[in-house]
Amino acid sequence: MTSENKAKDQDGKALAFQALEQYKAQLALIESCIRAGRYNWALDTLNELHVHGRVLRGCLQDLPADATTAALVASLPPQDAAPLVVAAPAAEVGDKATVVVETPAKKVWTPPTPEQVQRALDKMFGHLPECTDEGDIVVVSFNGHLLDLPKAQRLVEPLKWFIKRGHIVLFQETNRDALKFLSNETGYGLNVSHRNKRGQAVGILFHPRIKWLGQPYYHDYLTDIPGHPEWKTTLRPALQRKVRDVSTGLEFSIIDMHTKSNLGGPEETAPIRRLQFEMFVGDIVRQEGEGTVFGPTILGGDMNAPIDNPETTEIEPLIAAGFVLVPNPDGRSTYFYKGKANGQFDGFFARGFAENQLAPVWIPLPLEGKGERWFYSELSDHMPAFTRIVV
């Protein structure tokens, strides 16, 4: 075998092992979802498993045939098999649920038009003015829900309108391609983390009024969970940036975070989120020990837990480190599962600001009218959260 062929063989094996790890991770997630009674999550993961199986089959078939690769290929779903759908049980008998596996009929999904999206945004917060060099500094957190470049291009006008309602817009579940496009369209500055294997990153867009200080800092270690190497490629880092408001001279730090999802059930995932917060606080202490001056600090993003619920214990490391939850006096939810409110997953923690320097969180009312439920599956399954630095 030539050196070129050996290199190709090694690359092929690396790809096959990566695909195998992803396949095994999906199997483990399905088991966790079923144990937690999250049958709809199991459904989504099962369909993803089918895709990973096809990818793995392709990788294995490109390798030299031997007994091991042949056995692995034989264990995978047939190459031409249709995706599987698990129907959530209508009723349960004892502790056992009836699960139906079937081949679904194809459904045609027509996404909402940019005009429909704009009407929804106008209804939720059309009263908010476009941000300028004057007035309070508006900070927004928003889960973009698989906001990739094609989606950003298709919805460019309503997304531009939305972004211009904030001086600092913290995005989750997006990537550099989408945010770079939107940065160019709006004239906002951009920082963004690396993306995971599902194309998800965190990123921040900055109004020209906000000037960068120093270099961005990436909390990449948040993807390294002891005992869970399979999550290395699915978790997201956090992004930290110190800035100055050109209009007032106020210097402060902003941090964008997207912690472990609830896939697998809150009982199993809450300890992971708590560990991520512990790791984050430890790194903040380390940075300060090495001379980093944060100044007043806002931590925002999608925390994947109802942060205003007293029973949410995973945020305790933040509270112990002096971060205070910015209150949500209206008690509105930001996360909606199949159109139903699940709590305030998105919001802000802050420390170092003067009393009353941060306005309470404002969250738009949910969309409940006929023909508006598409919002929760197309634009986002989260509502944006707004706060203001009073200057």
CATH A-level architecture of the largest domain: 4-Layer Sandwich
What does the largest sheet look like? 6 strands, mixed
Number of helices: 9
CATH class of the largest domain: Alpha Beta
First-residue to last-residue Cα separation: 69 Å
**Strand order within the widest sheet?**
9-10-11-12-16-13
Please, what is the average pLDDT?
84
Which range best describes the helical content: under 10%, 10-25%, 25-40%, 40-55%, 55-70% or over 70%? 25-40%
In total, the number of strands is 17
**Percent of residues in β-strands:** 15-25%
Structural class: alpha+beta
**CATH topology-level fold name of the largest domain:** Deoxyribonuclease I, Chain A
Number of domains: 2
Which spans have pLDDT < 50 for at least 5 consecutive residues?
Answer: 81-101
What does the oligomeric state look like here? single chain
- Which overall shape is indicated by the principal axes computed on the Cα atoms? globular
Give structural attributes.
391 residues; alpha+beta; Deoxyribonuclease I, Chain A; six-stranded mixed sheet; five-stranded mixed sheet; 34% helix
Q: If you had to describe this structure to a student in words, what would you say it looks like?
A:
It is globular, with a radius of gyration of 23 Å. The strands form 5 sheets. A 6-stranded mixed sheet has the order 9-10-11-12-16-13, with no helix packed on it. The chain has a 5-stranded mixed sheet with strand order 7-8-6-5-17. Helix content is 34%, strand content 23%. The model is unreliable at 81-101 (pLDDT under 50). The chain contains 9 helices and 17 strands. It is α+β, with helices and mostly antiparallel strands and 391 residues long. It has helices at 3-35, 39-61, 67-75, 114-125, 149-154, 156-163, 176-186, 266-289, 316-320, and strands at 85-87, 92-93, 96-97, 100-102, 137-147, 168-174, 189-192, 201-206, 210-219, 238-245, 251-258, 297-302, 324-325, 335-337, 340-343, 346-351, 385-389. The protein starts with a helix and ends with a strand. The protein folds into 2 domains: 3-102, no CATH class; 114-389, Deoxyribonuclease I, Chain A.
